[in-house]
Known about the structure:
Number of strands of chain A: 15
Number of helices of chain A: 9
Order of helices and strands of chain A: EHEEEEHEEHHEHHEEHEHEHEEE
Radius of gyration of chain A: 20 Å
Shape of chain A: flat
Oligomer: homodimer
Number of domains of chain A: 2
CATH class of the largest domain in chain A: Alpha Beta
Amino acid sequence: MIQSLHQDISDLDTGMEDKTEKVNILRLTAESTSEIEDTVVREFPLTIVLNDQELVTLLCSPADQKNLAVGFLYSEGLINGRDEVKNVTFNEGTGVVRVETEGGDVLAREALFSRLITSGCGRGASFYSATDVTGKKVESPLQVSVSAILALMKDFQHRSETFRATGGVHSAALCDTKNILVFNEDIGRHNAMDKVFGECLLKDIPTDDCLVITSGRISSEILLKVARRNVPILVSKSAPTNLGVKMAEDLGITLVGFVRGKRVNVYTHKQRINRGGI
Amino acid sequence: MIQSLHQDISDLDTGMEDKTEKVNILRLTAESTSEIEDTVVREFPLTIVLNDQELVTLLCSPADQKNLAVGFLYSEGLINGRDEVKNVTFNEGTGVVRVETEGGDVLAREALFSRLITSGCGRGASFYSATDVTGKKVESPLQVSVSAILALMKDFQHRSETFRATGGVHSAALCDTKNILVFNEDIGRHNAMDKVFGECLLKDIPTDDCLVITSGRISSEILLKVARRNVPILVSKSAPTNLGVKMAEDLGITLVGFVRGKRVNVYTHKQRINRGGI
């Protein structure tokens, strides 16, 4: 089945059935044995072909593959906006997403490999703290209250059905201060965020003055993705790394971690968090 | 500071101090504000140079970098045994591990990139289920009881100090049926396992007829690492993916997941699990 961008700009949700699989297992304790049917999450090797050049294979959850491909290409700097994307097709049989862009004969494969192998080298950690990765700091007057963050996180955690069924998936979401606007989930925390940003790009959903929520740890790579989309506030139920904190500081991003129960930790750019009730 | 393999074959444990960092944060609830000092886990960009050729930069925890480099090279098939490794040095200032091997002018960079970009393509998921990735199935008469697995997991969870302090680290361990033999932890679940297997390789610790425990999800990439070391039993407190289950079946590996409380799930090659008490 080949889906074209022009027929259907974002993937249909393929539903729980396709993202998980039933397996027969033994459930054992020291005293008892039972044969039961269990649900495991599916892992799908997705190959991205950019302008007829094979670029990379990502291991991902089998849904929203076009969003993932476009989000990945954007995060890696290989495309810079919706208008560059001429066509996106997904062939489920071969597991290949083909993306065609304007001016499509750039040396993307070499550029990507070069970034993958040289990032940090020679320059060490300094690469990761430089705002020249994205070119600019995020500037936004957005303010959000602690209560709003706690409410968004509660909604976010209710949305992740696959995680609850199988215990093996990360989620990501774009939100305004009241509602989740775009939600996705994947076996990889990077993929979940690329799927959200890919949908934003393909549907022209603005991300300035928004929040992004992730279920996963906040590392330097996650900060780079968020900065590319000019998002001012990043929220996680998990912990950041020191490099995540340093990059958030340098990139002008408000970092909120360990959002659990009724409290939050604010690591950087605290002026965007309204300490009042609502 | 440069450490040579000949002076010190495995890295000294650099201790908690170096794997984490203190940061000043705001802890907020809807009603209260407190400024506190919090601990975050450090993230270190480590560049691996193989025979003077820059190969890859891994984002990792800043400890046991030589074990990580050697374990990574082994997992990726770029080295095949201890005797191929002539020298390993780590320069903390530049963040570079240099590995010299016998017959060192292989096209490692091209081989690695080729694997990273072509795995799965054209062949789709079939690549991941083929035993020809590792060349053979794991054959081992090892048997272990449910009680022993539960006891090992309890010990394993007590060992991960960094995780308890910061909530951001994965652990991996090599065990016999009674004790943890090699333990490590890292911000990445792949890195934690490569650090364990790197130490095994550098110290000539055999891994046949052993168990490996991981805190992380069991995906296809983890199965490949374990199969490379001929380990017959893989144990996790987390869930496997469907591809992880399929590869374990194909590779002859006993997969035990969701080891929590007093029960375990056995997914594949159940003959190695002794259902009796001890």
